[in-house]
Amino acid sequence: MIGHVALTVLLGAATAAASSADAYAPYYVDCPSDIQIVREPTLSSNETAWVKGRKAVVADSLHSYLARLDLEGFNLSDYTKKIKKNGYSNVPVIAWATSGGGWRSAYTGAGGMEAIDERTPGSKEAKVGGLLQSLTYIAGLSGGSWPTASYAFYNYTSMSDIVKEWRVDIDRFTATGYSQYAAPESAYFEMIAEKYEMGFNISAADFLGLTFGYEFIPGVNRTFSSIAESESFKKFEGPLPILLTSSMNTSNSVENGLYVPDDTDPLYEWTPFEFGSWDLGFTPTKYVGSTDKDNTDNQCVVNLDQGSFVLGAVSAAFNYWWLSATTNDTLGQFSKRQSSLQKRDDDSLTGIASLESLSDAFAEFFGLTLAQIANPSIPNPFTSEDTITFADTSEAGQSVPFWPLIQPERDVDFIMAWDDDADDEPYLWTNGTNIWDTYNLAKDAGLPFPEVPPVSEMLARNYTLKPVLFGCDVSLTTTGDASSPIVAYMANAPYSYYTNYSWAAPEMTYSNFDSITENSFNLVTMGNGSLSSTWADCLGCAAIDRSLHRLGIERPAACEKCFKEHCWDGTLIGGVSEDFVLDPTLALDPTLTYAEWNKTNPNHP
Ligand SMILES: *[C@@H]1O[C@H](CO)[C@@H](O)[C@H](O)[C@H]1NC(C)=O
Ligand SMILES: *[C@@H]1O[C@H](CO)[C@@H](O)[C@H](O)[C@H]1NC(C)=O
Ligand SMILES: *[C@@H]1O[C@H](CO)[C@@H](O)[C@H](O)[C@H]1NC(C)=O
Ligand SMILES: *[C@@H]1O[C@H](CO)[C@@H](O)[C@H](O)[C@H]1NC(C)=O
Ligand SMILES: *[C@@H]1O[C@H](CO)[C@@H](O)[C@H](O)[C@H]1NC(C)=O
Ligand SMILES: *[C@@H]1O[C@H](CO)[C@@H](O)[C@H](O)[C@H]1NC(C)=O
Ligand SMILES: *[C@@H]1O[C@H](CO)[C@@H](O)[C@H](O)[C@H]1NC(C)=O
Ligand SMILES: *[C@@H]1O[C@H](CO)[C@@H](O)[C@H](O)[C@H]1NC(C)=O
Ligand SMILES: *[C@@H]1O[C@H](CO)[C@@H](O)[C@H](O)[C@H]1NC(C)=O
Ligand SMILES: *[C@@H]1O[C@H](CO)[C@@H](O)[C@H](O)[C@H]1NC(C)=O
Ligand SMILES: *[C@@H]1O[C@H](CO)[C@@H](O)[C@H](O)[C@H]1NC(C)=O
Question: Is residue 231 lining ligand 5, measured as CB closer than 6 Å?
Fold first, then answer.
């Protein structure tokens, strides 16, 4: 996929564009006099103030959305009056999270976002439109970070319009001409060379990040912190984006010469305000790369938070791809239920030929080794180590970005989680391994999270084929009280289209793309209500339930009823047998087998 780039002039020719926020390379400025480079791990005053502003907007969106549900036994005008009191403090904090899974989760997750966007035709009728308008946070990691960031970079315009701008029909790895949508590979390397010449570490994540940037970021050269300066963000028109990544340091294990993370490594998050970790502290995103170490001339780094780089840095799985490709999947395994069933496709983006070609280019142009370019790193303001090195959070057992959303200071009441990390082999569906991991890690860390059943139970109950709610009953949470959010768990599954294509799908036709997003629409709405007449209402019930609890309002009759049907009750039914294979047919057309569908859809991804 990644061809060999024959570049004659790279270094030297590249410096002209540097020192500008419209270019890729970081540069130095005098530190602002009031800058605090490291702040303790608490919620920033910027975020606190912004969330307060956002809640006033959400109160109105939520009202319109709930009015369309018309929940039996619910006094909407009374509820709205109450949540608007006391500085909007009781407005529920609602979040959407999209898992890792490359272009598969990016597109199926975008389909989920389209479904809950009230501007999408059919979404209001299906009674889910308006939830996107009621979000305070939106989180992503790896491929899930791409639609998450894109929504904010596009000023929160409608998802249906944004996806058209992605030009999913262009392969950024083979493009030859220059446009706002793509550039030849040599252009990516020239931009990377500018960064290298400024003395910053460069890696495969810079290259991959630029291909993501050309697809998902309007204007490409936008810093992540610039989102905070846009009018739409300042007017609270959409949710605060949070991107999550894992990290590694020199204490981590080394496999075949490459560092690999584990689930105890600090997770770092990027918001337009700050970058950092709840273990170590936060630094202003705009000045990422700046440290207080030996900073006698008071110089601060800016522009290291280029959106493309950030998207690459939170999708930094090159180490795993390499290990997996060179050991026939013995090493570099993402969390799976069964690892023995894996199969790999060596023609893909992550085949050894592509990986070698990219690593050879870095060796040839910059004299860097595989170990140096496998994972991105930035200067470390938090500890005595020089750098923070990133790894895809999917490598560390958690593919759904719950972590930032369950930090107690964020007080999140309800999380809609889109899980499409294909943790079930061999057919690339989802079995709950990653949410199970998050539950266990949250429990160990004393963080609030719903109890979820183990994977074998998830499968026995079909919880990864149809949406389900966790934590409705406050006793079924790690904290045993209402401080835990309710989670609506939605795993990618086939409703009207088989959406278990490879994560490495850098181009497809819009006809296929539209079928994929329609499949997500059908999943989120349970076939526009045809597979469950109570599910859509129940999402609304889950969205407001914790706030009802705080306000001392009784749960409406409609919600009591639908929770019985859609919330896990904490019991176990014995799981599936060890050799169970998740091999579903289309929920909306169960008799159409994959083999037949494959014949009539010969060009599916
Ligand atoms: C982004 O910046 C680079 C310089 O780093 C420049 O060559 C390129 O044209 C810019 N891209 C766009 C789309 O403005
Ligand atoms: C809804 O609550 C308000 C008080 O805020 C009350 O005046 C009204 O009668 C209630 N409506 C119904 C249908 O109970
Ligand atoms: C549900 O509605 C959406 C939007 O109108 C449509 O795209 C989809 O095909 C419908 N699905 C079913 C099963 O009717
Ligand atoms: C580059 O990374 C190495 C470790 O791989 C580190 O020692 C060095 O300080 C980094 N340099 C910069 C400029 O970040
Ligand atoms: C977003 O809004 C800003 C003004 O805040 C404008 O400059 C920019 O062009 C808009 N971007 C898009 C993609 O609409
Ligand atoms: C360094 O890595 C070790 C081993 O994974 C981890 O336990 C520790 O928290 C890391 N420390 C920092 C400061 O990142
Ligand atoms: C956030 O707050 C600090 C002061 O606490 C301020 O200097 C900074 O400009 C604010 N804005 C952003 C976008 O971080
Ligand atoms: C790779 O693993 C698969 C399944 O585990 C096995 O069938 C295949 O023979 C292995 N290939 C090599 C080259 O070892
Ligand atoms: C799960 O789905 C399968 C296939 O549709 C069905 O046979 C089974 O009864 C379902 N299990 C439960 C607990 O609903
Ligand atoms: C997609 O799912 C179907 C149903 O489980 C399966 O038959 C097919 O082989 C899967 N495709 C891939 C690429 O795994
Ligand atoms: C799907 O169709 C393609 C040809 O379009 C064929 O190569 C492939 O083997 C088929 N897969 C299945 C599982 O039927």
Answer: yes
528 Cα: distance to centroid of ligand 3 (angstroms): 6
Residue 180 backbone dihedrals phi, psi, to 5 degrees: -70, -10
Spatial separation of the C-alpha atoms in residues 206 and 242, rounded to whole Å: 20
Ligand approaching nearest to the C-alpha of 85: 2
Backbone angles phi, psi at 98, to 5 degrees: -115, 130
Across 564-575, b (16+ Cβ under 10 Å) vs e yields: eebbbeeeeeeb
- Inter-residue contact 237 to 156 (CB < 8 Å): yes
User: What tens digit of pLDDT does each residue of 66-116 get?
Assistant: 999 989 999 999 999 999 999 999 999 999 999 999 999 999 999 999 999
Tell me if 462 CB under 6 Å of ligand 9.
yes
Work out the end-to-end distance of the chain between its first and last CA atoms, rounded to an integer number of angstroms. Answer: 16
Q: Ligand 6: distance of its center to the CA of 276 in Å?
A: 14
Q: How many CB atoms lie within 10 A of CB 4?
A: 12
Ligand 3 atom closest to 518 (CA): 7
d(CA 259, CA 169): 35
What is the number of the ligand closest to the CA of 150? 5
**Contact of 516 with 549, CB cutoff 8 Å:** no
Mutate to test the pocket of ligand 7, among 36, 37, 46, 233 (most ligand atoms within 8 A of CB): 46
**Using a 6 Å cutoff on CB, does residue 600 contact ligand 11?**
no
Q: Is 241 helix (H, G, I), strand (E, B) or coil?
A: strand
> Of 130, 133, 120, 131, which Cα lies nearest the Cα of 160?
120
75 lines ligand 2 (CB under 6 A): yes
* 179-205 b/e (C-beta count within 10 Å ≥ 16 → b): eebbbbbbbbbbbbbbbbbbebbbbbb
Bridge-based pairing of strands 387-391 and 137-140 is: unpaired
**pTM over the 0.85 mark:** yes
- Hey, which residues does 419 pair with through a beta bridge? 491
44 DSSP 8-state letter: -
- pLDDT at residue 8 greater than cutoff 70: no
Instruction: Give percent of the chain above pLDDT 90.
Output: 91
The rounded distance, in Å, linking the Cα atoms of 491 and 481 is 26
What are the residues facing 242 on neighbouring strands? 139
- CB contact at 8 A, 200 and 212: no
CB 210 within 8 A of CB 312: yes
Element containing residue 76 per DSSP (H, E):
helix 76-84
Query: What string of DSSP letters covers 106-148?
Result: HHHHHHHHHHT-TTSTTTTTTT-TTSGGG-SEEEE-GGGHHHH
